UniProtKB/TrEMBL annotation:
TM segment ranges: 21-41
Descriptive protein name: Lanosterol 14-alpha demethylase
Keyword field contains Aminoacyl-tRNA synthetase: no
Keywords: Cholesterol biosynthesis, Cholesterol metabolism, Endoplasmic reticulum, Heme, Iron, Lipid biosynthesis, Lipid metabolism, Membrane, Metal-binding, Monooxygenase, Oxidoreductase, Steroid biosynthesis, Steroid metabolism, Sterol biosynthesis, Sterol metabolism, Transmembrane, Transmembrane helix
Superkingdom, natural source: Eukaryota
Signal peptide stretch: none
Amino acid sequence: METVNTGGGYSGAAMEQLQEASIGTLALLTTTAVLTVTLLARKMLAEKPQGDKRAPPHIPSTIPYLGHAVSFGLSPLEFLLAAYEKYGPVFSFTMVGKTFTYLVGSDAAALMFNSKNENLNAEEVYNKLTGPVFGKGVAYDVPHPVFLEQKKMLKTGLNIARFREHIPMIVDETEEYFKRWGNSGQKDLFQAMSELIILTASSCLHGPEIRSIMNEAVAQLYWELDGGFSAEAWLLPTWVPLPSFKKRDVAHKKVKQIFYNAIQKRRESNETHDDMLQTLLDSTYKSGRHLTDDEIAGMMIGLLLAGQHTSSTTSTWMAFFLAQNKEIQDNCFEEQQSLFGKELAPLDYDSLKECSYIERCLKETLRLRPPIMTMMRMCKTEQTVLGYTIPPGHQVCVSPTTNQKLKDMWEDAATFNPDRFLSKTGAVSDDKFIYIPFGAGRHRCIGESFAYVQIKTIMSTFLRLFEVELGDPGFPEINYATMIHTPLNPIIKYKKRQS
Ligand code: HEM
């Protein structure tokens, strides 16, 4: 879950954030590095494939331990595209003592998406981050078959009947939120979208008990919990007494308590609602066992945070692409008028589905700015791909950002062109794993449909309210220092539409 969604270019972000880490953290890291250097040398020898098997080409580095951390961290996409040009679809390199093997392009990526979790393992790379945030007994803290059962329960709760109810709730939240913007001005759009996504997700996914107590203090607890998805958390043991770890752990306890209270209130009320909390209260494992309150609370946290950065960065980038391309923005608004009339009748699920132009804009945003930059797995057993043998111990990675920008796969790859998706795949070929913003295989996202409903509803409402242009800082640069690649200086200029 990105959040669970993890990934987010853990590694790239990790390196960038190293620059921002406190002196204490750096001292700790240096000590750790010195102590582990001998072990690493041994480990790297052990990581070579045995016999005459061919290891993936290894990008050489003269910097011990850190390896390519700095150049990757400064610009992961350029690093990976250049490596693909030079070494082909499978290559390895070292960063902070770990060996990363990237699978670029569809044929190579197929290894990850078709693999079994016991061979290419997700929890070993993700649980360090998600464990302290979601808590015990859920997601990557349980054996994979159990997580698959939990995903199935969550998926049952994300259904079309519910989406029909979600749409007016999201419209109301969005209209209410943007009242504070007035008639015109310049504002930080990423901050706005982050707040709006948390409010709408809480309304739709958590139910009335939780949404009714959602205030600044609760939002602050979510931010502190969310602060657990950091480079430090990925690099350092959980017991290190960092203030951000402490905040995360305190916030975890408090948020859990909020959910325990809501669960108890729901049970005592004897009312049944048609929402996610009810789905989880009613769900059972194959064994017949119901979820414990702790599991339900952990899954509710995961559900909220999985969509938080992913959907808030996507909506923000989408608005900036539209602000930059006035004609495309106008097409989106005209689509609203042609489907809902000049008076702009209320949005509903069936008509929203018809909004195919805005949907293509969202799809194209997810191609150029997929929030999860890299999906990672720990290689547990020797794997063969395109003639190369990957030994156990490598971190095997697939990057949507890279696959979705390959020049040999996408015409005019860098250009924002929603109409490329008028063709079946939008790409030059119909290779299966070229467009993968939601992943694929057994770890595939379960939140895609909800995210589409949520973002399309927010963006349609937003464009009905405002016309937008780039703010004074211009089109935002990508902030590689964050786990999910967020926009830097995301200031948008807006003007209320005349009704
Ligand atoms: C634009 C929005 C989103 C994007 C781009 C996105 C992307 C992804 C990706 C790439 C993965 C695969 C991770 C991997 O293979 O390592 C994933 C998994 C997942 N996502 Fe999403 N996600 C989004 C929104 C959501 C939402 C709204 C939810 C929940 C309501 C959600 C829940 C999950 C869950 C439960 C997994 C499964 C993780 C696993 O099985 O290992 N996501 N997502």
